[in-house]
Amino acid sequence: MITLQDIQDAASRLQGQVLDTPCVESRTLSEIVGAQVFLKFENLQFTASFKERGACNKLTLLTPKERAQGVVAMSAGNHAQGVAYHAQRLGLRAVIVMPRFTPGVKVERTRGFGAEVVLHGDTLEEARQHAYALADEQGLTFVHPYDDEAVAAGQGTLGLEMLQAVPDLDTLVIAVGGGGLIAGVATAAKAIKPGIEVIGVQTTRFPAMVNAIQGTHHPQGTSTIAEGIAVGTPGTITQEVVRRLVDDLLLVDEGDIEQAVLMLLEIEKTLVEGAGAVGLAAMLRHPDRFRGKKVGLVLCGGNIDPLLLAAIIERGMVRSGRLARIRVSARDVPGALARITAALAEVGANIEEVHHQRAFTMLAAQNVEIELVLQTRGHAHVEEVLEHLHAVGMTATKM
What we know:
This protein is an alpha/beta fold. It folds into three domains: about 5-50 and about 150-315, Rossmann fold; about 70-140, Rossmann fold, CATH 3.40.50; about 320-399, Alpha-Beta Plaits, CATH 3.30.70.260.
């Protein structure tokens, strides 16, 4: 059973070892969602994730014998880096087991913190079983990513910090994977302020905690952009805390998460991974649930693959109408393309891509379809572009 005292003790241990990250209001996001939104910037931790808190707390509680023998953890992401970094700081041997599919950049970053990385298995479960085997063989202490009271107590320290920074928060919205973060935060928050509402958020593709607590049978997917909370089985310890202290669990879609990542980047100029954006995604998906309240969101991590981020940005530009694809039909004669580009310039659209389509079209042989990707100012501007092309005698449609 995790207690407020456990979390307060963890906070004392972590003093000077992890950042007391800012918790500040976003006035722009508050206006957009109709609630007062306070952001806890855990993406500013040295390894860009809250996972450092639990890892550091667990490592500082080891006995002298355990410290001498070292630790082992299984993780494909933030937990690996948190354990590796603080083990290095504390002079401990750390073995991190990662599935073979783990991106090379994460493997190298974990090695960079001094850990011995073992690539084993094609699934997280196979990697976990190998980590347990290494723990038995070599006398290493297994550091669980979430189902451990010391780890959950460490994560709960950010709940203490949020309520110290903003004592009159009404609601905390927390990402949920295995449940370590929300178990710690809910324990701290409910002990300090019993009336506060704690709401967990999962993706529709990985709803394990929702199914366990609410008795639902949502199907489980295979991938999500919020890979930090892509957990197939919630923790036993954490599940008990969630059942007792968490007021509600919400689900969000991939599109909600993409939108939230992009909004935090554009509005707050802060980079978060998918799991770090699900709190805002929940507020965008369920605005009536939060309207008029003082809400604390945890931006729990900032480790996002640059290629994924690029795709999210581009898809966001399409959704907002700032990137549009149109098709223009014209006579296949010299100067036709020049007339089209001149017309687009007159209305202020910038051409990103041009593709002439002669063969795969139902038009007459003397005609050509020209597909263009345009940079525009939004949906209204796209309509203005189409109207202008029609006005100068061209056939144009949005694709």
